[in-house]
Automatic annotation (TrEMBL):
InterPro entries: Integrase_p58-like_C, Retrovirus_Pol_polyprotein, RNaseH-like_sf, RNaseH_sf. This is Integrase p58-like C-terminal domain-containing protein. Residues 143-175 form the Integrase p58-like C-terminal domain. It comes from the Eukaryota. One of its GO terms (molecular function) is nucleic acid binding. PANTHER family: PROTEIN CBG26694, PROTEIN NYNRIN-LIKE. Pfam families: Integrase_p58_C.
């Protein structure tokens, strides 16, 4: 679970840090707030709610205000929290099983239908290492490239721009490009 979170953090930082990678630390706190307060598809609750039994108080709550809770005894609070956490745990467990089944279905469908047409635009997975910079924070995708020819079911000849050198790559290193090319 920690490795999965770190992977998400690395992907985020790779998108927002400057080229010299000297400002990465300024992006961590906003990322953590958004990560902890966003509903995760796999669990259908926020990490804050799953861990604490309540949502985080966000900066917008200062403007809109939060209705105060009625005072309770410590015993009542502890019992309510335990019951709520048990309900949350059961909900997350059931949602996790459903999500796992959905992910398997999507993966199977994607692996059976993966292919690109000639002329379509793609990203190329090409993790380039620049000396003196963290490889984890560097962009891992390059493009867009154009599919020149399909050599076989899993191999394509691609080219970046009209004068780029053609490359032969495996389909696993390609992803669809949905952007607009600016001339």
């Amino acid at each position: 679970m920690v490795e999965r979170f770190n992977q998400t953090l690395e992907r985020y930082l790779a998108k927002v840090v400057e080229k010299r990678q000297r400002d990465w630390d300024r992006h961590i706190q906003p990322f953590l707030l958004s990560y902890r307060s966003a509903v995760h598809e796999s669990k259908s609750v926020t990490p804050a709610f799953a861990n604490f039994g309540r949502e985080l108080r966000l900066p917008a709550d200062l403007i809109t205000g939060i209705p105060p809770e009625a005072p309770r005894s410590i015993t009542d609070y502890a019992n309510d929290l335990r019951n709520k956490m048990n309900d949350i745990y059961e909900h997350v467990r059931q949602t996790g099983q459903q999500t796992s089944e959905k992910m398997k279905t999507r993966y199977d469908r994607k692996m059976n239908n993966k292919g690109f047409d000639e002329g379509s635009l793609v990203w190329l997975h090409n993790p380039v290492r620049s000396k003196g910079k963290s490889p984890k924070l560097q962009a891992k995708w390059d493009g867009p490239y154009r599919i020149v020819t399909r050599i076989n079911d899993v191999t394509y000849r691609i080219q970046k721009g009209a004068r780029g050198t053609p490359k032969i790559v495996h389909v696993d290193r390609l992803a669809s490009y949905y952007g607009v090319i600016m001339s």
